[in-house]
Amino acid sequence: MRDVRDKDFISCREKKTKKEKRFPINRELKKILADYIRDKKDYEYLFKNPHEPNKAITRQQAYNILSNAGRKFGLDSIGTHTLRKTFGYHLYKQTNDAALLMDIFNHSDIHITLRYIGVNQDCKDKAYKNLSFKR
Q1: Radius of gyration of the chain from Cα atoms?
Q2: Block means of pLDDT (10 residues each) for the chain, length 135 residues?
Q3: What's the pLDDT score for residue 59?
Q4: CA–CA separation, 66 vs 59, rounded Å?
Q5: With helix as H, strand as E and coil as C, how does the chain read?
Q6: How far is CA 21 from the centre of its chain?
Q7: What is the pLDDT of residue 108?
Q8: Residue 103, Ramachandran bin (φ over 0: left; ψ between -120 and 50: alpha; else beta)
Q9: Residue 118: CB partners within 8 Å, gap ≥ 6?
């Protein structure tokens, strides 16, 4: 809890790239976190491992939780990576800033980023649907 209690940012190191990432905690999330951690101790994890007290959940456990929740709503391909893509898709739709997303995702090409978040597919789908053969 000490990593988020009364903080303005969350910092972490990416395993893949070893780069330090910093994420601001916006007002909406601050309120959610404050409610969630209100009765928790600073040494506790945000997401505790149910099998090992005083340990965080693993990546596999996070995947299983999301996957099971998705199946309950009829969604078969939900996982931890889905959250990353969904974040990117919605940030792009709100900002139209593909360069920012490219930097956030550490992609080397803007086309990779747009394909990754599914914007290219959305554009192709829209083009096919709007195609008219009338004159």
Answers
A1: 19
A2: 88 83 91 93 89 87 90 87 90 94 92 89 84 83
A3: 86
A4: 11
A5: CCCCCCCCEEEEECCCCCCEEEEECCHHHHHHHHHHHCCCCCCCCCCECCCCCCCECCHHHHHHHHHHHHHHCCCCCCCHHHHHHHHHHHHHHHHCCHHHHHHHHCCCCHHHHHHHCCHHHHHHHHHHHHCCCCC
A6: 13
A7: 92
A8: alpha
A9: 85, 89
Tokens of 52: 């090992």
Question: Encoding tokens for residue 105?
Answer: 């995702």
Predicted confidence at residue 89, as pLDDT, reads 92
Q: Left, alpha or beta for 101 (phi > 0: left; psi -120 to 50: alpha)? A: alpha
Name the nearest CA neighbour of 104 among 116, 88, 115, 118.
88
Tell me the whole-structure pTM to 2 decimals. Answer: 0.72
Question: Which residue from 127, 106, 124 is spatially nearest to 115, judged by alpha carbons?
Answer: 124
Angstrom distances, CA of residue 18 to CA of 13, 14, 15, 107: 6, 5, 5, 15
Long-range contact set of residues 97-104: C-beta below 8 Å, sequence gap at least 24: none
Which amino acid is located at 58 in the chain?
T
